[in-house]
Specification:
- By secondary structure, this protein is an alpha/beta fold.
- It folds into two domains: about 5-235, Putative sugar-binding, N-terminal domain (Rossmann fold), CATH 3.40.50; about 255-420, Molybdenum Cofactor Biosythetic Enzyme, Chain A (3-Layer(aba) Sandwich), CATH 3.40.980.
- The chain is about 40% helix and about 20% strand.
- The chain contains 15 helices and 18 strands.
- Helix 2 (about 55-75) runs parallel beside helix 3 and helix 11 crosses helix 13 (about 330-350).
- It is globular and about 65 Å long.
- The two termini are about 35 Å apart.
- The structure holds adenosine-5'-diphosphate and the ligand O=C(O)[C@@H](O)C(=O)COP(=O)(O)O.
- The site of adenosine-5'-diphosphate has 24 residues, from helix 12, helix 13 and helix 14.
- This is 3-oxo-tetronate kinase.
Length: about 425
Amino acid sequence: MLLGAVADDLTGATDLALTLSREGMRAVQVVGVPPADFDFGDAEAVVVALKSRTIPAAEAVSLSLDAARAILSAGAEQIIFKYCSTFDSTPEGNIGPVAEALAGLLDAPLVLACPAFPANGRTVYQGHLFVGSMLLSDCPMKDHPLTPMTDANLVRVLQQQTKLPVGLIPYSVVDRGGEAIAAAFTEAETKGDRFVIVDAVTEDHLRAIGRAAADMKLITGGSGIAIGLPENFRRAGKLATRKADTTFAAPAGRAAILAGSCSAATRRQIAAAIAAGVPALKIDPIAIAEGNTTAAGVADWLASAGHPHPLAYSSADPDEVRSAQEKLGRDRAGGLVEHLLAEVAITLRENSFSRLIVAGGETSGAVVNGLGVAALRIGPEIDPGVPWTRSLDGGSPIALALKSGNFGADDFFLKAWDQLK
Ligand SMILES: Nc1ncnc2c1ncn2[C@@H]1O[C@H](COP(=O)(O)OP(=O)(O)O)[C@@H](O)[C@H]1O
Ligand SMILES: O=C(O)[C@@H](O)C(=O)COP(=O)(O)O
């Protein structure tokens, strides 16, 4: 193993594993901290998917350290801490505390932080995160049910989560390439910075940052930050030049879509699916709390919907989410939906469903944990950051498209199936 990664949610891990596999590494995604005797096979990159984005910071730190130790002892030479390209976090963390703890474990004097993912419109300029043409704080992430993002200034956001000094490596340096960036790392370290937000607007910037970070033990960011890393191993003669392995066989069986993401993108995808005639059942967290909506009922509805890929969704607009949260509390509302959709997935698999699209990072975490899947193989890309995956264990095989809430074109729920034909 050359590269090991700790990802703070399931869809984020899939996104990163896809990037590494596209860049020619044999990548495997593991769900949860792998046990000491876990067989990573011939993987050159391993991404450990945690569900640590919104749990208490101390728990996130402890899980992330365990995950990092597991991949280090399996031989990883460099560690990526993968978080969301929209820097999803709260004032308490968990990006700062986890990055700090991993830096301690790895004895890393300077930690770079760069969530840029240009293919999905996330760019960082003067330390400010843009989503398309909007500042992060103006985009729909301001209404996220669990991690509303209301400040686009990442130096300020990260500085709130750590006592260690946070600096910036601006566009004017990054645009000059790898050597200038490496010199800026040294300068930042000398100045006493322990974290640096690094601007990046294009994939060329990310490749240059990757090159400059060749000797860093710890790298943090979105999946984009990994684009330039495999080449470092190739240059060092440790990684063969090969094309991404795209062979993928999805198990035959019935299909369904489960959506727990409330993002604007997922809501557009649901609207497009409904407009195209996909039967859709809306799930209300209050009805779950009152016992009027059950997993068995939702699974029955999906099984008898008479369509190749029916949809069950709890996705709702910000006003509806706010109203459910006022009645139930933020965590209970989210937890009820996550638990229900995980139970639905379990029941579906028992009833010969073997192809699922799941929308939402936390939602995917709940579903994959519910299904008891411990590892995933990465298949073909549906849209930037979202591949089909196939369970490697945990009962009868299942094809899963774990879609980050924010990712995917409007027709994602319609077109994704074409790749399984
Ligand atoms: N109608 C709703 N009201 C309140 N919370 C909801 C509702 N539907 C889903 N949720 C919760 O919102 C969270 C969405 O997070 P996630 O699945 O990570 O989506 P995303 O990928 O868009 O961030 C989950 O915890 C989910 O259970
Ligand atoms: O970096 C990203 O945007 C994604 O890989 C990601 O982390 C997904 O998180 P969710 O939006 O919560 O699915």
